[in-house]
Design goal:
The complex is a heterodimer of chains A (about 400) and B (about 550). Chain A is an all-alpha fold. Chain A has helices spanning about 15-20, 30-55, 60-90, 90-95, 110-135, 145-175, 180-205, 220-240, 245-265, 295-305, 310-340, 375-405, and strands at about 100, 105. In chain A, helix 2 (about 30-55) packs antiparallel against helix 6 (about 145-175) and helix 11 (about 310-340) packs across helix 12. Chain B is elongated. The chains are: A mainly alpha (about 400), B alpha+beta (about 550). The interface between A and B is large, with 62 and 59 residues.
């Protein structure tokens, strides 16, 4: 795309931002939207634990407030950014923004954040009506929850885009000292891995009902994973050049999952809705993370080793590698979580059970027959997963290339 | 979008028909420790949802009243902790609150009361089923449509910016080629958004369809009258089509008797409500019930057949049938010795009294109404009293012997009395007991379930269960009257001596009261049944109900 650019309209101005907001030149706004991203995902995980442990909630339950805090911080900071740039921004600042509807000047990230906050706002009255019409749902995915989830993803993606735009501007807009430039790069990488890890956690959370370890010996588990993860991982890997970007992003995902798994169950909770088949006195934890970090490390290693390949060849290779490594790791680790008594503790948390489920259920700790597949069925299913994995990888590479070039 | 948002049809205004017809609320009067309570529960019309619970403490000094839901499936062990009900401002001894009901089916609200007289508990059985299908209010529909459109426009704009000026370094401007690319991508984004909205709409549709599938659907039954050996034999055949989506295929095998009878059948001639029978058909197979008809006049009759499931789920089968003329000269057979009938003057035609051995003239509040054996009933209240819809009342009747002294009532089907309330058009029907609208079989089932500590209810095989019930009912029928009445009262936990009772209103003196809230305005007829000197007597009364606040 670079070759089609028209000549610059403005001389490249000195980095006003870097003088204004400290030596690393990262605006407060960026920290705010990454914080928002953290709020919405931890709020959501807490909310899920609330529903599996307490059950009954209201519009202003504590986990909901954390989610709203994320939406409000994101919406207010982004809205302020847009209004300030539009009505009080310097020419130089406006030159680094996209123009919307002929009036507003905004960064791309702020637009995604505003869209996300608006979608989250829309979901509230929709969800309220939904509950009055179809009952108080207890599933993660319903149409109004999906609007909410899309909003959350919008906010989180806005945070990533904001970080990337600042990062990509560094090259030609940052004129600070070399040590400050390095510090800025380190901080931006941290902010990127955090915001990307939060989005990956959100993505996992949405799909968690399909990715329970009880399904880990069924090809559907690998099909969902193969379709869902490579495109995100490869996009992140390509968006921010670093030897171990994907590994770090999956590390953030793992840490969010582990910390919530270990911390939330420390607090007392008791079911407030019947029927209660499994009595609790403390919160259930959410899920032990998928060991995505293992295929992530493999992807990081291989994509650098074969960086010179064209994207189709690379997609076939990396897509296959992801599936093979993920399959080997999760096949055994899923079985460990489900079957091993060693997993029924605070560390792995496989003993946590929704209060409405029967704790004496015969398939609580073993693979249920309806998930069983013959070797032929499994092989066929994995074949489909392989195609999905390669396509997902290919999409991720394209998307990552786009993210790498975000400038505003 | 608007169309998608407003995709559902009009609010379906059919009234819930489980347990009774037309009144979903439950009223139960009872004793909780030393306190006498009247509890009114309005179940939600969408499950999961919240039931509104109002407790009137009629005697005793209560400091705190609490409530919690207990499901038949999970019992006492699976119930959450109590929630406090709020004291209603300005109303002494009245408490109100909500209880969350999460599952369709048989359920109950357990009330716990604390105060000067110590602690007490009481269980109110109820059936929780989704019955309402709601439309989206226009204001909300337009708001969501506007927000939805804004989201689509904003998203398309953002995607356009993402592939065009978002990729330019500071100060660079778009080339014509990049502008074309922006429009192309915005077009693609718009198409994708439309497809996503279409997908969302289909998903919504399938969700609504799933909801409708598990909404309450009344069991349907077909009534017929056949002539057999000169008798008129009434048959009620339950339709089992699509049984799986209604109550499950083995549901009818788990029916239990209420007051010792598998079905309480009420026939009311329409439109005048001037002939009434309370019969107890026998079960000939799991879907068919039959009974010989008494000497009812020919005509069109409303059929209400109450059946009771072991889970406490109760419902009323309804139909309309034509009863042919009786063939004279034949001795009329009776299926059950406690089958009764009566004829009276039609609604709004008090002078038009039919000729029949079983004629009773219809009464009103505050007047003396003669019964067949010369005794009479006074419905306490003012002449020309008008009742308010939705408000719980104590319908109180005083029975006097022909000589004017207080009558000594005998238990009839294990109770001091029964009353059937029917609205003039047949759209409301309820079988009342002195304790309220609750079927005793349901109360018994829930009490037994609460005493049982099993976490998840396990039931016997359907065939074995059905046979055991048939044997039990046959044995009851063979018992002498007194022994049977004593057995039934003991089964319900009542003291036979009659001096201490679990439920107020069952002390078999001369007075009998029924707590009830008429669900909506209209003209109602109450068929009161009591037993005196071994004879079942039916008194008939009219009540006028208007919308409250008018």
């Amino acid at each position: 795309m670079d070759q089609t650019l028209a000549p610059p309209r403005f001389p490249e101005s000195p980095p006003a931002a870097s003088r204004e907001v400290g030596s690393s030149g990262i605006p407060v706004y960026i920290y705010a939207v990454v914080f928002s991203s953290l709020c919405v995902i931890t709020g959501l995980i807490w909310d899920i634990c609330w529903h599996t442990s307490i059950g009954r909630d209201g519009l202003f339950s504590p986990p909901h407030l954390v989610i709203y805090l994320g939406a409000v911080v994101s919406g207010i900071f982004s809205g302020y950014e847009v209004l300030r740039n539009t009505f009080a921004g310097s020419t130089a600042e406006k030159s680094r923004r996209v123009k919307v509807w002929g009036i507003f000047y905004s960064s791309l990230g702020a637009l995604f954040c505003i869209w996300g906050a608006l979608a989250m706002l829309t979901s509230a009255p929709f969800d309220d009506w939904w509950h009055n019409t179809y009952g108080l749902d207890v599933t993660i995915l319903s149409p109004p929850h999906t609007v909410l989830a899309l909003g959350i993803i919008g906010v989180q993606f806005g945070a990533i885009v904001s970080v990337l735009a600042i990062k990509n501007q560094t090259e030609y807009l940052f004129h600070g000292s070399e040590s400050n430039r390095k510090r800025r790069q380190r901080m931006l990488f941290l902010l990127f891995t955090l915001s990307a890890g939060f989005l990956l956690t959100m993505w996992y959370t949405l799909l968690s009902e399909e990715l329970g370890y009880w399904a880990s010996h069924n090809s559907s588990y690998y099909q969902v994973s193969a379709a869902a993860f490579p495109f995100l991982l490869l996009a992140f890997g390509r968006a921010y050049s670093n030897r171990w970007t994907i590994t770090y992003v999956t590390l953030v995902y793992s840490l969010i999952m582990l910390l919530t798994l270990w911390i939330i169950p420390l607090f007392p909770a008791e079911p407030k809705l019947g029927p209660i088949l499994n009595h609790l006195d403390h919160y259930n934890g959410f899920d032990f993370p998928l060991l995505l970090i293992v295929p992530a490390a493999a992807l990081d290693y291989l994509r650098h080793r074969f960086a010179y390949w064209n994207d189709w060849k690379l997609a076939a290779f990396l897509g296959t590698s992801f599936l093979v490594v993920f399959f080997v790791v999760q096949w055994f680790f899923g079985a460990f979580l489900l079957e091993s008594p060693l997993a029924r503790n605070w560390f792995f948390g496989s003993h946590y059970l929704y209060f409405g489920n029967n704790p004496d259920w015969e398939y609580r700790y073993k693979f249920a027959p309806w998930f069983a597949q013959t070797t032929g069925q499994l092989a066929q299913g994995l074949g489909i997963a392989l195609v999905l994995s390669i396509l997902s990888t290919r999409v991720g590479l394209v998307w990552g290339r786009w993210m790498k070039n975000i400038q505003r | 979008m608007k169309k998608l948002l407003l995709i559902f049809g009009l609010l379906v205004s059919t009234f819930p028909i489980f347990a009774h017809v037309g009144s979903s609320g439950v009223v139960l009067q009872g004793q909780a420790g030393a306190y006498r309570l009247l509890v009114d529960v309005q179940p939600p019309d969408v499950i999961p949802g919240t039931a509104r619970v109002t407790v009137y403490v009629e005697s005793g000094d209560a400091s705190q009243v609490m409530a919690r839901p207990i499901y038949f499936r999970s019992g006492d062990e699976g119930a959450p902790d109590y929630d406090a009900l709020e004291s209603v401002a300005g109303q002494v001894g009245q408490f109100q609150g909500i209880v969350w009901l999460m599952e369709n089916g048989s359920s109950s609200v357990q009330i716990k009361i604390e105060g000067a007289q110590g602690e007490g508990e009481m269980v109110v059985p109820l059936v929780a089923m989704s019955t309402a299908e709601r439309d989206m209010p226009a204001g909300l529909g337009w708001t969501l449509t506007a927000l939805g459109l804004l989201l689509v426009i904003l998203l398309v704009t953002v995607i356009g910016a993402s592939v065009s000026d978002g990729m330019l370094r500071a100060g660079q401007v778009l080339s014509p080629q990049q502008k074309r690319k922006r429009w192309l991508n915005m077009g693609i984004a718009f198409v994708v958004c439309t497809l996503i909205l279409y997908g969302g709409s289909s998903w919504w549709d399938s969700w609504a369809q799933g909801y409708r599938r598990y909404m309450y659907k009344p069991l349907t039954a077909e009534g017929s009258v056949v002539r057999q050996d000169g008798q008129r034999l009434f048959k009620l055949k339950i339709d089992t089509t699509d049984a799986q989506s209604k109550r499950g295929t083995s549901y009818l095998s788990y029916l239990v008797p209420d007051h010792g009878k598998m079905m309480h059948l009420f026939l009311v001639r329409t439109p005048g409500l001037d002939a009434f029978a309370h019969l107890h058909p026998e079960r000939t197979d799991s879907t068919t019930f039959q009974a010989y008809l008494p000497k009812l006049p020919a005509g069109r009759y409303l059929v209400y057949g109450d059946i009771f499931s072991y889970s406490g789920f109760t419902e009323t089968l309804t139909d309309t049938i034509d009863i042919p003329e009786l063939v004279e000269g034949q001795a009329i057979k009776r299926t059950d010795p406690e089958d009764t009938y009566v004829v009276t003057d039609p609604l709004n035609q008090p002078k038009n009294i039919p000729l029949d051995a079983n004629v009773v003239v219809c009464g009103k509040p505050g007047t003396r109404t003669a019964l067949l054996d010369g005794s009479y009933v006074v419905w306490e209240g003012e002449a020309n009293q008008v009742f308010a819809a939705g408000k719980p009342y104590q319908l109180k009747f005083e029975v006097f012997a022909p000589d004017g002294t207080a009558a000594r009532l005998q238990p009839y089907l294990g109770m001091a009395g029964h009353a059937a309330v029917v609205r003039s058009d047949g759209s409301v029907y309820v079988h009342l007991h002195p304790v309220g609208t609750v079927a005793m079989a349901s109360e018994l089932s829930l009490k037994n379930r609460i005493a049982d500590t099993a976490r998840v209810f396990k039931r016997a095989a359907p065939g074995i269960f059905r046979d055991s019930i048939d044997r039990h009912v046959a044995a009851l029928k063979k018992m002498p009257d007194l022994e049977r009445e004593n057995f039934l009262m003991k089964e319900m936990g009542m003291q036979i001596a009659g001096d201490t009772t679990l439920h107020e209103g069952m002390n078999h003196g001369s007075s009998i009261s029924f707590p009830y809230a008429f669900p909506r305005a209209g003209q109602y007829r109450i068929f009161l049944q009591v037993k005196r000197d071994g004879q079942v007597l039916t008194g008939i009364f009219d009540a006028r109900v208007e919308e409250s606040g008018i």
